[in-house]
Design brief:
globular, 677 residues, mainly beta
Length: 677
């Protein structure tokens, strides 16, 4: 089997030298999955065992990796917004520009703040062949119902001539409505935003030039996605078991949208002082506008009678930073590899009420500088890795006043400083041909959702300097596993234990306010994955993940509560087969089963009811591609059996909102076409 190399560890490293569970989703696998559903989180849910089910929405609320928050990267550039996690970070680029996805499971600090559940690094495409190529990409999906057509078309131009290479891509898309298994319109999420009744465009360019052992590369991506306000939600009827639906009509306010602009300048020197130097300057400007609502949170009796004020919030997060890494093998000792580096990040985030220009979350000015050292030592069949990263950060917040619904409390500004050394150590043992075993212990550094903490202050006399809820989240992950990679397939199994003494749990009270509790959290679980190729034209694959999250009602209370759907997914089984019935043809059949989950029966945290119930379901999909002299054609069927179901998150949460009790998509047919000129 060909060696698999990942870069999310800050230097290119073969997976059999990484002490941990690693998943690499190839371009071919992504093409098959995006043919079925052009949804980044659906691909993760299919290929990454510990990733929770996709919401099938632009919002990723309730999506997690091993019961914790992953750090999302695009070519190493942070896309996550940990200071004000609006759960809209999953839509930041067109899926057509992605070459592969690297997933490092478990807490990690190697890429910076926020990876308490792991790292998800999307790697963009780079020209590999000499010459100039032009490619047309088109995809359409429908259930053959009214206003039920999704379409996307894109054009890419690639060029490689000796030391110079360039890739440019532009696309436009429009998404119609979806229907569930009973033929009813799926409910549109007017508040959080939706992928239904929406459209967008993306422009991407990557230019690189090699200068002997050196390379300079510029990457720019401009992604925009917005709703069209042609439909409004119809509340669910819980007595009749009818989920939220939609009807034509314009909801209030302006269209919800995402605008994400990412840029980077990368430099690499392959022989600097006998080592490899990589440096990156980056910026990411993120804007998410949410839908309008007259929710109780937005009310202000000074502006309108209670219940009459419609408003919508907007998150802005601007990041600028630099990453420098130097890798030197055999430094001081044969077999000892040194990785040294330093990262710097400036993140300014905030959330305002777009229609009334009120402040919901004041500007959060976060600065971090983090030097790090990683050592790797090969001793025969054993590789030992250990390292430390010093997170030195500060958070500056000016004085502000909370919204009227929180009491209009004046909060004094201030500055918080954080200084923490996070460590990792692990070993990989190649104990037999094609077999490896690993053991690891790693830490991740994060902050609670600072925006939620600050906007929820409801007692006078508070100051940013003294809020206990702003203490950092340190997650420690212990893991053991075994892997096999042979000529006829691969397999792996791992068990992990992840703990945070001062974790975060979001709970929704009876008034609909989100309450962020600082309580211990523990997530244990095990995962298995396998792919077997009994013949050159046939592959069988499967994954299983069991996740067991625990927390406490309050600090100091027993750890006897299960983590809810906001934090972790249900047990998940994925089975499938790939078959090449004819040359240049690929057929894929897959099924995903989510297990029932009944937790915290009769339990509360104060006045908040924590009971959750979920009835599991099984979904099957079919996809096929074939290459011809005229191009590559693809057809797919998502939800092959037209199963009627309500999504995991909508089913599970105790306080069910009749406007967000969403059914999943029914049977949907898709077709794609790619032509290279």
């Amino acid at each position: 089997m060909a060696e698999v190399v990942v870069t999310a560890t800050r230097n290119a490293k073969a997976v059999d030298k990484i002490p941990g569970a690693v998943t690499v989703v190839s371009q071919r696998e992504l093409e098959m999955q995006y043919l079925l559903a052009d949804d980044p989180s659906a691909a993760l849910a299919t290929y990454v065992p510990g990733y929770s089910p996709s919401r099938q929405k632009i919002s990723s609320s309730g999506e997690s990796l091993r019961g914790r928050t992953p750090l999302i990267l695009l070519d190493g550039i942070p896309q996550s917004n940990p200071l004000r996690a609006g759960m809209r970070e999953g839509y930041f680029a067109d899926t057509a520009i992605i070459e592969r996805i690297e997933v490092i499971n478990g807490a990690s600090a190697i890429q910076g703040m926020g990876a308490t559940g792991g790292i998800i690094n999307y790697i963009t495409k780079t020209p590999r062949q000499e010459g100039t190529g032009v490619a047309l990409h088109a995809r359409a999906a429908t259930g053959f119902r009214h206003d039920n057509l999704d379409w996307k078309t894109g054009l890419s131009v690639s060029h490689k001539s000796g030391a110079f290479d360039m890739l440019a891509y532009a696309s436009v898309q429009r998404r119609g409505m979806a229907y569930d298994g009973t033929g009813r319109l799926v409910g549109i999420d007017a508040l959080q935003g939706d992928t239904l009744d929406a459209g967008g465009h993306d422009v991407f360019i990557k230019i690189g030039r090699n200068f002997g052992d050196q390379r300079l590369q510029l990457t720019v991506n401009r992604f925009n996605f917005r709703g069209e306000l042609d439909y409004r939600a119809v509340p669910a009827d819980f007595a009749r078991g009818t989920p939220t639906s939609s009807i034509p009509g314009r909801p209030p306010g302006n269209p919800a949208r995402n605008a994400v602009h990412t840029s980077s300048l990368d430099y690499r020197h392959a022989s600097l002082l006998d080592g490899v130097l990589t440096a990156q300057l980056f910026s990411q400007d993120f804007m998410a506008l949410y839908g309008a609502s007259n929710t109780i949170t937005f009310q202000d009796a000074r502006l309108a009678p209670p219940g009459m004020l419609f408003d919508q919030s907007e998150i802005n997060a601007d990041k600028h930073g630099a990453k420098i890494t130097w890798v030197h093998p055999d430094l001081l000792l044969p077999g000892l590899e040194w990785t040294l580096g330093i990262d710097h990040l400036r993140d300014r985030s905030g959330q305002r009420m777009a229609l009334t220009n009120r402040t919901w979350v004041p500007t959060l000015d976060f600065t971090s500088t983090a030097p790090f050292l990683q050592l790797e030592y090969d001793v025969g069949p054993v590789t030992v890795r250990a390292g430390v990263r010093r997170e030195s950060a500060s958070l500056q917040v000016d004085a502000y006043t909370t919204l009227w619904s929180y009491g209009g409390v004046q909060v004094r500004g201030g500055k918080r400083s954080f200084d923490k050394a996070v460590k990792n150590i692990g070993a990989v043992w190649r104990f037999a041909p094609a077999w490896t075993a690993f053991l690891s212990s790693s830490e991740g550094f994060g902050l609670p959702d600072v925006g939620v903490v600050l906007r929820g202050v409801n007692r006078p006399g508070q100051s940013v300097d003294t809020l206990f809820e702003l203490q950092p989240v340190i997650t420690r992950n212990q893991e053991i596993g075994i892997n096999w990679r042979g000529a006829r397939g691969s397999a792996g199994a791992s068990f992990y234990d992840s703990r945070s003494k001062l974790g975060t749990v979001m709970r929704i009270n009876a008034e609909g306010f989100g309450v962020l509790d600082r309580v211990p959290t523990t997530v244990r679980g095990w995962e298995v994955s396998a792919e077997v190729r009994p013949a050159s034209t046939l592959s069988l694959f499967g994954t299983y993940a069991r996740t067991i999250g625990k927390t406490a009602a309050t600090a100091g209370a027993p750890m006897d509560l299960a983590l809810g759907a906001r934090a972790q997914g249900p047990d998940k089984l994925v089975l499938g087969a790939g078959w090449r019935p004819l040359p240049r043809t690929q057929l894929r059949l897959q099924a995903t089963h989510l297990a029932d989950r009944d937790i915290n029966v009769g339990r509360t945290a104060g006045t908040i009811n924590l009971e959750e119930h979920f009835r599991g379901y099984t979904l099957a999909d079919l996809a096929m591609t074939w290459d011809t002299s005229l191009g590559r054609f693809g057809v797919g069927i998502d939800n092959l059996t037209d199963r009627q179901y309500v999504g995991y998150y909508s089913q599970s949460v105790f306080l069910k909102d009749p406007l967000t009790y969403f059914a999943g998509r029914g049977r949907t047919y898709s077709a794609s076409y790619t032509r290279n000129f």
